[in-house]
Design a protein that fits this description.
Strand content: under 5%
Oligomer: single chain
Radius of gyration: 18 Å
Structural class: mainly alpha
Order of helices and strands: HH
Distance between the termini: 46 Å
Helix content: over 70%
Number of strands: 0
Number of helices: 2
């Protein structure tokens, strides 16, 4: 099982390096999409926590 995880991680790293080397602008787009996703998730968690603190009403 551990060997499978190592191989999977290696494949992902090689793929990421390949994308960065062959098309840096597309790689930058992927990074931006990732950061936007993380930002949206953090905002949603913040909104949820605010909703809870305010009593959970509608």
């Amino acid at each position: 099982m551990v060997q499978t995880k190592k191989i999977g991680l290696f494949v992902v790293v090689v793929f990421v390096l390949y994308v960065i080397i062959t098309d840096p602008s597309k790689a930058a787009d992927y990074v931006q999409i990732g950061f936007e996703g993380v930002s949206a998730a953090a905002k949603a968690v913040g909104d949820f926590m605010t909703w809870i603190v305010n009593g959970g009403g509608s």
